[in-house]
Amino acid sequence: RPDPRTPEYALEGRAYALGLGLRGRTAIRTVDEPLWAAVRDAGFESDRFTLRIGSKLKIDLRTPDDSNSEPSVLIYQSELCAALLAELERRHGVGGRLSTTFEARVTECDAVRGTVAVDAAGGAMTLSADCIAGCDGVNSIVRAGMERAASAFSAELQPLPGNLKVVR
User: Is the pTM for the entire model greater than 0.70?
Assistant: First the structure.
């Protein structure tokens, strides 16, 4: 995929909107408050929780105890990725220790040696890394490399009807 911060990544076709409530905020805040602020600023705060049934029935789902709670943040998956990536590069991009590659297909991952082979626009290349993050989907080459390298690593692939798969 292209870099989520570029116009090529514009919302076309399917867009995944997420709601970050208490659990989402807490998970991001375990890193630190500035990371949460970067994500929050990329989305839209929402403090109205209304269930709509048809055009006439509306039910407010908040209780009186919810009045002091922080609003949820509504954010597209692409915007969440862009905010996290921008913050990652801001924190760790200095000094050449962080490298990201977009629009490249992972062809092999050796988790023991810390290498990843990719096919990119500039041709095939092998990259070295201290840390490899597998963001390559359900048929993950990175996950397969981790399974080969660490016998304790376990992943289960469960086919579902149609074209969907679930990975646990």
Answer: no
